[in-house]
Amino acid sequence: xxxxxxxxxxxxxxxxxxxxxxxxxxxxxxxxxxxxxxxxxxxxxxxxxxxxxxxxxxxxxxxxxxxxxxxxxxxxxxxxxxxxxxxxxxxxxxxxxxxxxxxxxxxxxxxxxxxxxxxxxxxxxxxxxxxxxxxxxxxxxxxxxxxxxxxxxxxxxxxxxxxxxxxxxxxxxxxxxxxxxxxxxxxxxxxxxxxxxxxxxxxxxxxxxxxxxxxxxxxxxxxxxxxxxxxxxxxxxxxxxxxxxxxxxxxxxxxxxxxxxxxxxxxxxxxxxxxxxxxxxxxxxxxxxxxxxxxxxxxxxxxxxxxxxxxxxxxxxxxxxxxxxxxxxxxxxxxxxxxxxxxxxxxxxxxxxxxxxxxxxxxxxxxxxxxxxxxxxxxxxxxxxxxxxxxxxxxxxxxxxxxxxxxxxxxxxxxxxxxxxxxxxxxxxxxxxxxxxxxxxxxxxxxxxxxxxxxxxxxxxxxxxxxxxxxxxxxxxxxxxxxxxxxxxxxxxxxxxxxxxxxxxxxxxxxxxxxxxxxxxxxxxxxxxxxxxxxxxx
Length: 538
Fold this sequence. Notes:
Layout: H1 14-26, H2 29-32, H3 34-80, H4 85-98, E1 105-113, H5 115-121, H6 128-139, E2 145-149, H7 160-169, E3 173-177, E4 198-200, E5 213-218, E6 242-243, H8 245-256, E7 261-263, E8 269-271, E9 274-276, E10 282-283, E11 286-287, E12 294-297, E13 307-311, H9 312-316, E14 329-334, E15 342-343, E16 357-358, H10 359-374, H11 386-406, H12 410-433, H13 440-462, H14 465-475, H15 489-501, H16 503-534
Parallel strand pairs: 1-13, 1-14, 2-3, 2-14, 3-4
Antiparallel strand pairs: 5-6, 5-12, 7-8, 8-9, 10-11, 15-16
Helix pairs in contact: 3-11, 3-13, 3-16, 6-7, 8-10, 11-12, 11-13, 12-13, 14-16
């Protein structure tokens, strides 16, 4: 069946009349001129607005830039004086606790003398014979190096001769000692350890007691108390350049890989693919570090499970897999709290005494970071030069000020400033994961301070005072002398009157009033043109 549709449906009936009427209205001569008129008026309004914005551009730039520079200068000054060191170190700890934990480094093994060992053997400190036995058991499994982080300046029980013999004849063993300085006369190495296999086990502590740095090379300092015995670790001769225990362990491992430490042109140590940048007095968030020796920042792998730890009893019973020892770096020391060798780290809840880390494990972490950096596996901690950090702070101050100037709705202002701070936090966090310590806290103060300052200055700009001052300074930059205000209470009222009656003040008020009226007239004109456009007949 074929359906025929008559063409009269398109030329008759209500549909045709309605469409024809609509088309006539839409394309009438009167309405064809309305659209170009609207576009012309809109273009004029846009040009007017652009002209106004261009005329105000110097004031806008002056407002944002002046506030940003002022805030940046204040933040940099406070940082230089050390007022921000505490918050910046807290930010360092915060990021260290929250970044991903590094995988287990099976190149190292820690033999810990824990509470169970002490209670089971009824030994504290452990006897010389016990230490000699555990060292002998470790040597039998052919490790690359053994670091002893146990003080042995005083004989403990029997076996002193056996311990001295083991220390002397095994070249893999390096004995730790404590350097002299202040009220500490120093602690000598274990008996039998030659000078070339002696290393200091000291760690520098920050004012809050947290270990965030490690010493690589140093010289014992002068002791304020009489020296009971002269030894290598209290010899203050400048030529007595000693190496730390964890640096010695790292050098022993890297030497087996054909990597040796060399001195760079700038005097810094080059270790494989890594340059060990020396920490200065003013570095990153630190001010007055007192780092007169060769120090670097600690790049911790994590709070736990990054270094394999076994007990002394396990080694003596032969319960440790030989592969965990053979060809590895082994460190032995106390992990029990009774030994008082637990130190606060960034993982210690801001140094309140919780989650302390044994010193021998910190040595293992320091050894691991140096090996990983030398092999190009994991970077050392780095930071920018002072000048770059100042530009970083200024950039964030300008960003915070720009948001404050361009957003007058309070809710939008708050949302955008919070988004900016979140972005700052994430940028610093990503950089920290890669070993970069960027100035987070100074940048936060710069964003907030600049936003507040620009908000105040923009109020003055809305009243015309910013632009009036700009024009007046441009015209009268030569010879303009502002009245001096003395602090004398009796003259204050008279001087205020002089200022308000001065030509400078009257000219400023007049200029501000003129600028406000010009802006008001421009806004009224634009509004009127749009109202005429919207009210045009169709």
